[in-house]
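User: ok so my PI wants both of these folded by tonight, can you help

Assistant: No problem, let's get them done. Here's the first:
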Amino acid sequence: MTIPFIPFAEGEAQLDWLGLTEALARGHDLPKAEIGDTFLYRDPDTLLSRSAWIDGMGLAVKTATIFPGNPANGAPMVNGSVNLFSDRDGTISALINFHLVTKWKTVGDSLLAARRLARADCKSILIVGTGTVGGGLCEAFAAGFPDAGITLWNRTRAKADALASDYPGVSVADDLETAVRSADIIITATMSSSPVIKGAWLQPGQHLNLIGAYRPDMREADDDALRRARIFVDSFDTTIGHIGEIQIPLDDGVITRDDLVADYYDLAAFSRNSDEEITLFKNGGGAHLDLMTSRYILDRWQASR
């Protein structure tokens, strides 16, 4: 049997953002995933493997190598692959490009929340941070909210200008506070360890979608933002105790565990109580989302053959 390898460009050509969010929703109707992470280090290099098993869907192991010295030699810093296995007999089903899975998982995760927590009449989207996932966010949120305009903000204006030039109609903001106050949806995808979004800037009816923070010492929104919002996460298991965005305000007594309304295993709870409330979603990721995304990619790939 030939095991398919799905490369980035050929795999992406078969995908659509709304279809992925629907696949992620269906994945959470299955039994809760078992997940596990393994880290190996050789300073300054890292091998990271994230694995997941969902009964009824299968197994996936996503492995990344992070070699910080590679760019100086003209090679990517991050490389890897995703191995997808059959739930029926454990045989390998596909090898999928690491960057394809990462892009679509990360952005699709946030789009699923926004489609349920943002107001239906949203007209303006602000993307804060124009790094690795910036392009995917432009594509996905344009598909999810086709009547909304997209604005970018980045600490380095030239990087925002460069990304905007790839997406006709996308504009660039100079002042972050002004841009936040005027947006219906605010998406943060920065590498900041200290908050870039202040709760005092938030307006009734907004949806704040936080992607960037992934370590215990990182956060993108301040305490006031969490106090003012109804808070949702993609997974309690990958956010509580792991990511500063949630754990620091929990430890400091700013919020309590009861303030976390739901994760995706209670997707029916992802809804607004009113057009005036502020909703906040923390994207924590996790290997179970890589598995759901990989299965969606393989299904679309096979359907196209």
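One down. Here's the second:
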Amino acid sequence: MATTLSIAFWFLGVPYFLLFAVFIGAMELIPFIGATLGIGTVGIIVAFIDWWLTLKVLIVAIAMQQVKDNIVAPRIMGNLTGLSPVIIFAALLLGGKIGGLLGVILAIPLTGVLKSIVEVVLNPKLPPQTGSFFYNPLDEDGEMRGWGEGEI
């Protein structure tokens, strides 16, 4: 967020563009309200300089935040958890409906755990996460492998 906003603010001719972009990027670390607080704070400060520039800054920052939150973040979460973006959105909506703010925070981890449990139940010979990083200690006949002799 800080990188893309610094480039956008530089093109807009915002004074202290790097400081403002890094501030918004740092505020992104605060869950749920950080980006809004960062964009609002920068908007108020830039309003003292130029109203027309403030409008441009707000439009660009909000547009980039929406792209990040609705396109980039679900794809990254999907790659990390193995869940599709549609499932992530549905889990977030369901988590928010059932558990409020805590439900939204726990929705993706719980969905990932549920996915792993379903994978193990459907095919018990596979590890919950199937990737080259993860190691399946069971071979086809159910014997332990890779531990060395006498270490089991």
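The helical segments are 2-12, 17-27, 34-47, 51-81, 85-122. The chain has two domains: 1-74, 82-131. Good luck tonight!
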